Input
Amino acid sequence: MVSILVLHGPNLNLLGKREPGVYGSVTLEEINQSLYQEADSLGFALVASQSNHEGVLVDLIQDAMGKHSGILINPGAYTHTSVAIRDAIAGVNLPTVEVHLSNIHKREEFRHHSYIAPVAIGQICGFGADSYRLGLQALVHYLRQNM
Ligand code: DQA
Output
């Protein structure tokens, strides 16, 4: 079965408790459950991981080679800082969709730039927890057309 890797970056383990006015009340566990269900109904396998550490995320992206056909990633704050995560995505050359719960373009200026966007197929942001589901659907659509 074709498999997708879902990666959640720093502080996303706090979803539900963390700035609920910005990120909503849904927990990471609930987001992952809905992604597992959605992937299942689309006929794809899915593995989800979260890390607060940049190097661990780089390792997980590298490990995806040969195991997964695409990556759905919310890099959290590393979106705006990490050349290493960007280079890992470019290096493994796996189709990647970038997602964010909040609309990063209407928040603080420092969130407007993404190091990840230029190496992603596309970016979905601003739909709360639904950004993940929409991102998964977009990735599956892309994989079906390009595999
Ligand atoms: C975020 C947006 C980032 O700017 C922020 O650092 C996060 C979460 C989002 O999902 O909206 O940690 O990626």
Observations:
- Residues 35 and 41 are 10 Å apart (CA to CA).
